[in-house]
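Input sequence (367 aa), recorded before submission:
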Amino acid sequence: MRPFIVLLQKEFTKLRRDSFLPKLIIAFPVIIMLIAPFLATMDVRDVKVAVVDLDRSTTSHRIISHIKASKDLILVGTTAEFDLAMQELENGTVDIIVQIPDHFERDMAISTPEKISITANAVNATKGSLGTQYIVQTIARALTEFRSERSANQLSELVTVQNRFNPTLNYRHYMIPALMNIIFILVCGFLPALSIVEEKEIGTIEQINVTPVSRFTFTLSKLIPYWVIGIFVLMVAMIIARIVFGLIPAGSVWVIYLGTALFILTISGFSLTIANFSNTMQQIMFEMFFFIMIFILMSGLLTPIDSMPDWAQKFTLILPPRYFVEILRSVYLKGTTLAELWKNFVALGAFAIIFNILAAVTYKKQA
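Predicted structure, token format:
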């Protein structure tokens, strides 16, 4: 027990004496949580729209007014010539063209009118797709008002919409758990690996190798400081999420802490395992970067797993961040309980045991 305590004191002393690392541990999660939610968003704003109004009727003016009033759309202008609007689309000054056909209001009153044409710049597929949806919804509201004025029944009263778990449809509430996940991967994944390789480069690990300290004792002494750091980072991230973005867990906070503890164990053990096969800082940084990119891109942090190919969905089953981000999102947004998430906790627990045993076994102690 005495050697373990001495090694643990060495790790904390090393962290305390480092002039840069403590500042990074504090500043990194704060900056990521404050800035990234505003940048990492799939919401589309300021879609520039040009209207080709061939009808010049009350209905067409109402559609134009709704477009102008929309907070997501910017009305660039109206014209009666499609070619002029198309030229602006090609130049990039317009994102979407809405063409209202001639006699649209008259035909709508007596028969089926010619359809309104929407032409979108799809170079940015996301902006083109969502912008088109915004336009369709805006036109639908305008036409609903037109029809309701001529009908005893208000169409809007016949439909009710309820958004569960994220009633404001705020994309940041979906992304913040993913950003927490990324922070843990970088802080609790990168730093333990760099610590091991640094000791290899400066030669201090050779001094430990000639002592009676066991592999498991040495590995545990490397992991515990980053477990403590990980819990601290979680507290900082949760406080910022609550104060700045108003995101409060709908479920138990202790479920989040338990899931975080298991994930820190997992990612730290994984990083030490990789570090045991690396001899230089450059080597470990490239190796960790490779795995981190896979974790971020294929674990459902940025894109839904359901939208991936079948082979990719099966591959995500061996990626620990997949289970952790599901725990965070479920507890934060849906209030899911520990009993309902038991499969995710079992998976993280299994990963934690496997990777930490591998970290101890693959550590080459040469006394």
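Checked by second reader. The mean pLDDT is 84.
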